[in-house]
C-alpha cells in the first residue's frame, strides 16, 4: 500500500478534502461522508435512509436514464446511511477520464444537485421497507440496535419503520438534504493514480454547480449528549428469537467524537476493545474455553459524535443468566486485573494487522478516510494509525477501561 | 447498502500489461518466465501441495491451509467428526495449552479462521510479512499434532452444540442442508448436515477423533498456499521442514458418484423436511436447489456462475426485477453456484413476508420459465459475465482473497481451474444457459425447502407455468 497523503484541505465552501495519490491503485475511488447523526433527526426516523437511497437516482443535470448510463460507463456508485454518516462513493478506472466522469457523476450530479421526485421516493421507500423487514431476521444487528436504544434511553429508529417511511414525503427528504447536506458537514476523500492538483481541480469543478459553494451553514449540530446509563436499569428482553438460540449483550457509554478528550483517547479505546473482544485470544472469547459459554463472543465499538458505545455480546444456546454472569465477571475484572504486556502486544499487533487487511482495497481505504475526517477524528488518525496505536501505553488502556466501566451497563437479552 | 454495478468493470484493467504477455510469448522455446504474481506450484516430498504467489508490493501475507477432506467424505456413522476436529485444532497440541495457539498467532498479527466444507477443511489468515514463518510453523504443529484432551473435548462439545443451534436459526443454512438431504439418497455423504448429526457428535471420544485425524490430517492430504511479499524458495524450504513426513505422493481422491434421488414426475420436486424453527420465524424463505455436475466440468461451471449473476445481480437481475420489482412477492433474492468436487449445487433463495409464502416458489418457477422462453439478451449476458469477472478480480486484489481462491480449487482436486474458469467466463453463451434450464436445472430436479411460519407447501395444481 504505497500512498502519499496530503494534508486535508478545507475548500472555501467549508468542504473538507483529502487527496491520496497512489501510483499502484488499480482504481480511482471518490468517497463522500456527510455528518448526520440519528439523534439530530429522531423526529423523522428513516428520512436520511431514504435520502441515501435517492442520491444518484435522479439529478437536476441528468435524467435517471442518463445518470445510470454515466455510472455504467465508468464503473460503480454506491450510497449508505449508518445512523451517523451518510456516505456515497464511486469507483472508476485509474485514468484521468475515470476521475473526471466519477467526480462529475458523484459530486456534481448526485451530491450537489440531486432531484427529488415522487417516482424516486417511491422506489427508495420500497427498497427501504424491504430492508427494514429483512432486518427482523438478523439477530445480532437487532440485539445491537436494541442495546443502543437502551443505553441512550431512546427508541431511536435510524432506518425508519413502516409508519414513518410511508409518512415521509418528497418535501421531508428535500428538507433534510437542504439542512444537513452542507459543505461544512461534508468530507471527501479521493484515492488513485493521479496528480493531486488534477484531482483537486476536478473536485472543485464538480462542486461549482448549483448552490453548493454558496450554501449556508445549514443546521447547526445539536447533539443531546447522554452522560450516563441510569443505575438499576432492568434487562430488556428481546423478543422473536429462534428456539434454542440465546443471546445477551451489554453496552457501556463513552463520550462521543465531538469531545476532544474522547478523540484523544480513541487509540487507547481501540486497544482496550482489542484486549477484550478482538480475536480468539481476547478476554471475552476465552469464555468459550474456560466456561464453555457461547459460540460467538465479540465486542463492538460504535462511535458517534454524540456518544460512543462499547458493546459486547454472546450468542449461543446457554441460559442468558449464565452468559450475563460470565460476561460481567470478565468486564468487572478489567478494572481490577492488570493488563499483561503479552495481552497489550497481542491486541496492538492484531489491531494493526486487521486494519491493514481491511484496507487492502482502495474503496475501503477511501471510505475510511472520509469517515475519519467527517467524524472529527481526522484523516491523519487513519493515515497514522500504526504510530498512534504503538504509542498507546498500558496506563492509557487502564485509564480508559476505568472510565468506561465505571458507568452502568445497559443489558439486552433473549428470554 | 445500495450498490450500483459495483466493481463490475475492474476486470478490464487488472489484467497483465500486454507488453509483459508478449515478452513471455517470445520466450516460449526458452525457460518459461515466471511473472511476479504467477502461482508457483510444488509438490513436496511429504506429499504436501504448495502454492506460492510472490507479490512484492503487498503489505500482508495471506496464508491458507486446506486439508483435502470434508463433510462430504464422511460416512453417516462419523458425521460431524471432521468439523469437530477443526474445532479441536484450536485447543492446542501436546506442547500448547488451549488458547496458547491463538495467543501466539494473534501476537504475530494473524487471527486464524477455520471452516469445514463438504470437500475440505480450511484454516486461513493474513499476517505481517516478517511473521509468515512462525505462523506456518504454528499451523503445522496444531494441525499435525493436536492434543485431543478429554476435558477439552467435553468442553468443546458445548461450543459445537451452540454452533449447531445457531445454524438451525439461519433459514438459508437450514434450507441448504435440507435441500441437499432431499436431493441425495439416504447415506450419501453430500446429503448429510455439514456439521454432522448432534446424536453422533455428542458421543465422540478422543479415540474417534484420533483415528480420523491420523487418516486425514497428513501432509499428503494438505494444500498450503502463501501469497505476499515472500520468496518461493524460502517458503518451499520452510514448508518442507514443517510439514515433513514419509515420502509420499499427494492423496488424490477418486471422483465418486453421488447418489441422487430420481427426478420427480409430479412437478413438485423433492420436498425437504419440516422447519424446526418455523413458529418463531417472522419471514418466509424458500430455497430451491439443484444438484450440478462436478466442478471440473469447466463449461458447465462457468455457465452456472454467470447464470447466478444474471438471475440476481443485486436486485437488478431477472429474478430480482420480477419478484421484488414487478410482482412484489419477495424482499430478497439470492442465487449462487456452489462448486463441489463430486457434484455441486445451484440454489435460489427468496425471502418474503409470511403472507406470500405460498407464492414464492411459484413465482420463481414462472420466472425461470419466462427466462427460458425469452432467452438472454447480449447486454444481459455481458452484464452477467462482467459481474462474475468483477467478483474474481476483487477477490484476487487481496492476498487473503487470492490465497483462498487458489486453495479452494486445489483442494477441490482441480488445481489451476480457477484460471481456466476466468478464461471461460467470457465464452459463456445464451444457448448454453437455456440448455441448463432445460436439463440440469429442470423443475422436476429441484429440491425445495420452505422455512418460516408457512402454510402448507403449494400443490401441483397451484404451481403454475409450463414445463421447462
What does this structure look like?
With 415 residues, chain A is α+β, with helices and mostly antiparallel strands. Chain A contains 17 helices and eleven strands. In chain A, the strands form two sheets. Chain A has a six-stranded mixed β-sheet, sandwiched between helices. In chain A, helix 1 (47-54) packs across helix 4 and helix 3 (96-112) packs parallel to helix 8. The longest helix of chain A has 18 residues, at 118-135. Chain A is globular, with a radius of gyration of 22 Å. Chain B has 468 residues and is an alpha+beta fold. Helix content of chain B is 40%, strand content 15%. Chain B has 16 helices and twelve strands. A six-stranded mixed β-sheet of chain B has the order 2-3-7-4-6-5, with helices on both faces. Chain B has a five-stranded mixed β-sheet with strand order 8-12-9-11-10, with helices on both faces. Chain B is globular. Chain B starts with a strand and ends in a 17-residue tail after the last strand. Strand 4 of chain A pairs antiparallel with strand 1 (2-4) of chain B.
Topology of this structure?
The complex is a heterodimer of chains A (415) and B (468).
Chain A: E1 9-10, E2 16-21, E3 28-35, H1 47-54, H2 64-74, E4 76-81, E5 85-92, H3 96-112, H4 118-135, H5 139-152, H6 162-167, H7 170-180, E6 186-192, H8 196-206, E7 236-238, E8 246-255, H9 260-264, H10 266-277, H11 286-291, E9 296-302, E10 307-316, H12 320-336, H13 341-358, H14 362-375, H15 379-383, H16 385-390, H17 394-405, E11 410-414
Parallel strand pairs in A: 2-6, 7-11
Antiparallel strand pairs in A: 1-2, 3-5, 3-6, 4-5, 8-10, 8-11, 9-10
Chain B: E1 2-4, H1 18-26, E2 40-43, E3 49-54, E4 61-67, H2 81-89, H3 100-107, E5 113-116, E6 121-127, H4 132-144, H5 150-169, H6 171-183, H7 198-201, H8 206-216, E7 222-228, H9 232-242, E8 270-271, E9 283-292, H10 298-311, H11 318-326, E10 332-338, E11 344-353, H12 357-374, H13 378-396, H14 399-411, H15 417-424, H16 430-438, E12 447-451
Parallel strand pairs in B: 3-7, 8-12
Antiparallel strand pairs in B: 2-3, 4-6, 4-7, 5-6, 9-11, 9-12, 10-11
Amino acid at each position: 500500500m504505497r500512498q502519499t497523503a496530503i494534508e486535508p484541505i478545507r475548500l472555501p465552501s467549508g468542504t473538507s478534502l483529502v487527496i491520496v495519490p497512489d501510483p499502484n491503485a488499480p482504481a480511482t475511488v471518490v468517497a463522500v461522508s456527510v455528518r448526520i447523526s440519528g439523534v439530530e433527526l429522531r423526529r423523522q426516523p428513516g428520512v436520511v435512509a431514504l435520502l441515501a437511497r435517492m442520491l444518484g437516482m435522479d439529478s437536476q443535470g441528468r435524467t435517471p436514464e442518463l445518470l445510470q448510463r454515466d455510472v455504467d460507463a465508468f464503473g460503480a456508485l454506491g450510497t449508505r446511511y449508518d445512523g451517523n454518516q451518510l456516505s456515497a462513493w464511486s469507483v472508476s478506472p485509474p485514468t484521468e477520464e475515470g476521475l473526471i466522469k466519477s467526480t462529475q457523476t458523484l459530486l456534481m450530479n448526485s451530491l450537489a444537485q440531486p432531484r427529488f421526485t415522487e417516482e424516486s421516493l417511491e422506489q427508495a421507500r420500497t427498497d427501504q421497507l424491504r430492508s427494514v423487514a429483512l432486518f427482523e431476521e438478523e439477530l445480532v444487528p437487532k440485539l445491537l440496535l436494541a442495546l443502543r436504544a437502551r443505553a441512550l434511553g431512546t427508541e431511536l429508529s435510524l432506518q425508519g419503520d413502516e409508519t414513518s417511511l410511508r409518512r415521509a414525503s418528497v418535501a421531508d427528504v428535500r428538507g433534510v438534504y437542504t439542512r444537513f447536506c452542507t459543505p461544512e458537514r461534508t468530507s471527501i476523500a479521493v484515492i488513485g493514480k493521479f496528480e493531486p492538483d488534477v484531482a483537486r481541480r476536478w473536485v472543485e469543478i464538480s462542486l461549482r454547480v448549483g448552490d453548493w459553494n454558496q450554501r449556508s451553514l445549514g443546521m447547526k449540530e445539536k447533539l443531546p449528549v447522554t452522560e450516563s446509563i441510569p443505575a438499576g436499569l432492568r434487562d430488556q428482553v428481546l423478543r422473536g428469537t429462534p428456539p434454542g438460540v440465546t443471546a445477551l449483550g451489554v453496552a457501556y457509554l463513552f463520550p462521543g467524537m465531538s469531545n476532544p478528550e474522547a478523540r484523544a483517547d480513541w487509540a487507547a479505546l481501540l486497544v482496550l476493545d482489542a484486549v477484550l473482544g478482538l480475536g480468539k485470544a481476547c478476554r471475552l472469547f476465552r469464555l468459550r474455553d474456560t466456561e464453555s459459554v457461547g459460540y460467538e463472543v465479540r465486542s463492538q465499538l460504535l462511535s458517534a459524535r454524540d456518544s460512543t458505545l462499547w458493546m459486547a455480546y454472546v450468542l449461543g444456546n446457554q441460559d442468558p443468566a449464565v452468559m450475563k454472569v460470565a460476561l460481567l465477571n470478565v468486564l468487572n475484572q478489567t478494572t481490577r486485573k492488570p493488563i499483561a504486556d503479552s495481552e497489550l502486544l497481542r491486541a496492538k499487533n492484531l489491531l494493526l494487522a486487521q486494519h491493514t487487511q481491511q484496507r487492502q482495497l482502495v474503496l475501503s481505504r477511501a471510505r475510511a478516510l472520509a469517515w475519519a475526517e467527517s467524524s472529527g477524528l481526522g484523516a491523519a488518525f487513519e493515515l497514522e494509525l500504526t504510530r498512534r496505536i504503538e504509542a498507546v501505553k498500558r496506563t492509557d488502556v487502564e485509564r480508559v477501561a476505568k472510565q468506561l466501566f465505571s458507568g452502568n451497563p445497559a443489558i439486552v437479552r433473549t428470554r | 447498502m445500495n450498490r450500483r454495478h459495483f466493481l463490475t468493470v475492474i476486470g478490464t484493467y487488472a489484467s497483465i500489461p500486454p507488453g509483459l504477455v508478449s515478452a513471455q510469448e517470445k520466450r516460449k522455446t526458452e525457460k518459461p518466465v515466471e511473472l511476479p504474481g504467477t502461482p508457483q506450484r510444488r509438490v513436496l516430498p511429504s506429499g504436501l501441495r504448495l502454492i506460492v504467489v510472490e507479490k512484492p508490493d503487498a503489505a500482508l501475507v495471506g496464508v491458507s491451509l486446506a486439508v483435502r477432506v470434508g463433510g462430504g467424505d464422511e460416512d453417516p456413522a462419523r458425521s460431524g467428526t471432521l468439523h469437530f476436529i477443526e474445532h479441536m485444532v484450536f485447543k492446542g497440541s501436546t506442547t500448547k495449552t488451549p488458547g496458547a495457539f491463538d495467543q501466539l498467532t494473534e501476537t504475530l498479527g494473524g487471527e486464524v479462521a477455520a471452516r469445514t466444507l463438504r470437500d475440505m477443511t480450511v484454516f486461513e489468515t493474513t499476517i505481517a510479512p516478517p511473521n509468515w514463518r512462525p505462523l506456518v510453523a504454528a499451523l503445522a504443529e496444531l494441525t499435525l499434532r493436536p492434543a485431543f484432551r478429554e476435558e477439552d473435548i467435553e468442553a468443546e462439545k458445548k461450543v459445537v452444540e451452540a454452533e449447531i443451534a445457531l445454524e438451525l436459526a439461519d433459514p438459508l443454512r437450514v434450507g441448504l442442508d435440507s435441500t441437499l438431504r432431499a436431493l441425495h439418497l439416504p447415506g450419501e455423504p453430500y446429503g448429510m448436515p455439514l456439521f454432522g448429526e448432534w446424536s453422533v457428535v455428542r458421543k465422540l471420544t478422543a479415540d474417534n477423533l484420533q483415528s480420523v485425524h491420523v487418516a486425514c490430517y497428513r501432509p499428503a492430504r494438505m494444500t498450503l498456499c502463501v501469497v505476499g511479499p515472500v520468496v518461493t524458495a524460502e517458503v518451499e524450504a520452510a514448508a518442507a521442514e514443517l510439514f515433513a513426513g514419509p515420502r509420499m505422493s499427494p492423496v488424490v481422491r477418486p471422483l465418486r458418484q453421488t447418489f441422487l434421488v430420481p427426478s420427480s414426475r409430479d412437478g413438485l420436486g423433492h420436498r425437504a423436511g419440516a422447519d424446526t424453527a418455523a413458529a418463531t420465524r417472522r419471514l418466509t424463505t424458500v430455497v430451491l436447489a439443484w444438484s450440478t455436475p462436478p466442478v471440473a466440468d469447466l463449461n458447465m461451471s462457468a455457465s452456472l456462475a454467470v447464470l447466478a449473476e444474471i438471475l440476481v445481480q443485486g436486485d437488478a437481475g431477472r429474478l430480482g426485477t420480477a419478484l421484488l420489482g414487478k410482482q412484489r412477492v419477495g424482499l430478497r433474492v439470492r442465487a449462487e453456484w456452489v462448486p463441489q468436487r463430486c457434484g455441486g449445487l445451484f440454489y435460489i433463495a427468496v425471502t418474503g413476508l409470511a403472507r406470500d409464502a405460498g407464492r414464492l416458489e411459484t413465482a420463481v418457477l414462472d420466472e425461470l420459465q419466462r427466462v427460458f422462453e425469452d432467452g438472454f439478451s447480449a447486454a444481459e449476458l455481458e452484464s452477467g459475465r462482467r459481474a462474475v469477472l468483477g467478483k474474481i478480480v476483487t477477490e484476487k486484489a487481496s492476498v487473503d482473497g487470492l490465497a483462498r481462491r487458489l486453495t479452494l480449487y486445489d483442494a477441490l482436486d482441480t488445481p489451476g481451474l480457477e484460471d481456466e474458469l476466468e478464461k471461460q467466463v467470457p465464452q459463456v453463451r445464451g444457448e448454453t444457459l437455456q440448455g441448463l434450464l432445460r436439463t440440469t436445472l429442470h423443475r422436476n430436479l429441484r429440491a425445495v425447502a420452505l422455512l418460516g411460519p408457512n402454510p402448507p407447501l403449494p400443490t401441483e395444481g397451484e404451481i403454475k407455468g409450463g414445463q421447462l
